[in-house]
Amino acid sequence: MYQPYLRGKQFELIGIRELISPVLLPNKAKISPIIEPVKDSSTLKNSLQELIKNDVNFTIIINPQVGTFRSIDKIFATIKNSVGESKNYQVGVIFHNRIDHKENIKVLQKYSKNIPAIAIIHNAIFDNISEIVNSYQKYFSVKYNIINLSATSKRYHRNFEEHSLVELDDYFNVQPRNSDYLKLEESNFSEEHLFYKKDGFVGFSDYLTIGKEFSETGFLPYAVALHLSYADKTTKRIKIKHFVSDSNDDTSDVAGKFAEALNKLIVWCDKTSYNSIAIPIFREYHKNGHFPGLGILKKLSIMNHIDLVLNLI
Fold first, then answer.
1. What is the pLDDT of residues 268-291, one digit of tens each?
2. How do the domains of the chain map onto residue ranges?
3. Core-most of 15, 80, 285, 297, by most CB within 10 Å?
């Protein structure tokens, strides 16, 4: 199972919503998005409602560590108003170094009617983790233990039941500036879809083509970079092509920068016959000379990545 880890920013949520009918519905047994809500928005509520309406399982985190949506009461209000009578979701709890487990369990007990199951995201190491998880299991069903590999240890997953194990890591080779992707052109992403079951996990998770670093502020870029996931035809490993604009001396004419990057993407797709749910949309922008905005480009990159992964597993 694939559990893409999304921050609840507008275009990430819209991307998931637009994937429901063409991609997620035919693959419901293979996907369960993880959403860390970063803002109280109508987009979040609408997205949860659409997932519920179409019976697509998901995890909604109730103690996000980034963004401005930090009120557990308000998050549970959003859940209650979005899910109706459905039980096809998990409440996600991030285990971090500052968490007070006893207090957290008390808070969760207040909302037990809205907690069909729990997914724990392990972002820290606890020496008594088995005891801690057992304290949650006294009151709730723990469906998934999502192990952040870069925040725990190589063997940390051995503390948990195998049928609950999901691995999480950040495989995107983020660069300080968009123009730096000109040097890369292409980077390795992951091969977890090939080996996660052999490694003892029932699912795997990543931060898609965004990376785990979070920023609330937008800015005019010096360069426009389009990140497109694809699978190597020989090894089946996932790699990322980086298509970057050339006129990167200042922040003027972002639309022109997009056109430069998009032309490179179209040439590569023509050469390799690569296709996904996002490519026809890119082709339409190329044909019409239209710049849809930077948020839409991130959305299409996410949609392409999820579509690719689901076709591989």
1. 999 999 999 999 999 999 999 999
2. 1-169, 173-190+215-313
3. 15
